[in-house]
Specification:
Helix content: 25-40%
CATH architecture of one domain: Sandwich
Mean pLDDT: 78
CATH topology of one domain: Immunoglobulin-like
Structural class: alpha+beta
Number of strands: 11
Largest sheet: 5 strands, antiparallel
Number of helices: 19
Order of helices and strands: HHHHHHHHHHHHHHHHHHHEEEEEEEEEEE
CATH superfamily of one domain: C2 domain
Shape: flat
Radius of gyration: 32 Å
Length: 494
Amino acid sequence: MAERTHLGPFHDLENNLRKAVASSDPSSIIDCVRHSDLLGQQEGGKTNVTRILWNVIIEAPDLADLIMPSLGSPFDFHFIDDINGRTCLHTAAIAGTLRLVNLCIEKGVQIDKVDAYGRSALHYASMNGHPHVCHRLLEAKLPPNTLDMDNYSPLVYATLRGSVECVRVLIEEGKVPVQPITSVGDLIPLSLASRSGHVAVVLFLLQRGARCLPNSNGEYPMHLAAREGHVAVCKILLHQDGWDTPDKYHEWTPLFFAARYGHDDCVHVLLEAGGRARAIDELGHLPVHYAAWYGHHKCLSYLLDASTKFPSTSDVKKPPNSPLSDIGKPVESEIDLIPSLSLPPPIMPHRVYGHNYLDRSNLVQFSIGHSSGWPKGFSGVRLHHRLLSPAFKDEHLLASTPLKLVMTTSPDVNSAPYSISLPQRDEHGIFAFQIPSLDNLSLEFSIYPNFGSKIIGRAIALPSLFANIENNQAFILPILDNRLHVVGEVSNKR
């Protein structure tokens, strides 16, 4: 109540001042400013009055001369917002008002001050697309390459905004390199502009010598543009580096992304330029497979027409790094020749102190697979067709088990991983371990190939699932791949 009584006059000042500005009443504005002089003389009042006056000035910069008179005003240009750490220069750059930016610089506001997010005024001018403010801040010697807490530079924000003028000012006047010397994460300007579909920015960056570089997933700008359906950008990037190159993890060319997400214009442009309609990904699928699977009819017709102009799949050269590049026989026969490397569950010794070895811990046991007493519909691990390679037929392998399910517990549990071969036969697995408290119990079910360590899919059981669970209670978890597609289910009973 005391705080509300103390801030009451400031709330009244702000409301009355906003009403006077909205009605364009100069006399009322002057009365409010005079009242602010009195409030600014109170203890701690100067900061509150400064914040109120400046917020109104930002919304109505033409009335700055009335709201902020040169004499007798309690305005403090050096105030800093105690919540976000911004100065008046930050807010002026956000609003894009050059006059107020100049006023802040003249009054000695710290130019390179960063807020709670590590952003300078140049970040916000670029983020909001104000090239004239960017020009003025660079004139005032504000560093152009400062990174905020997200490792974003002003050039990154200008690129994401699609403001080609801000990009031009930063590169030409700020001397920001168009090609990052060391790319932080995947913040490559040309890739960001391609993914966002900013045609003017893409053209400008290419004119200034930007090269198409892959991100951490091996995706070039053409991959990103095709995935988002930016056909104009795709036309610009044709025959640039990576325009028909497989990515790192799935061996998808840009044509795969366009076909998967139903961007028929992009599919048409890529095919007309000579994109490989018979390229094969790591699962042995063609782009036409994904167009048909997801029901993109127009993409499907383009790909079917193009496939008649190319040789059959067996004559197509596989990508050099593809796991299928050395396969010369049908996939079924090759898998039959691979010996099974599945191992029995590890035996974990544990101490037993008579009858009280569970006095301070809990024994948890999970069963995966077919066993008596399971509800109808629970069948262990079930995989969808889209996860299965051509070696699968009618949801079963012809001869072997090329996949495995690995179950792991919380990091604080001293338990070895438990694995079973997939697809399951009639066997079922039982996994037991001890844990101090059930409050932090979590489980991960990861699908791997028998050869290699790349995760194909994963299901996670969070602690909330076990909050009120009863003994012998069953549950089903969806298995997601790295594209967040459901590729199967895993059924458990605790």
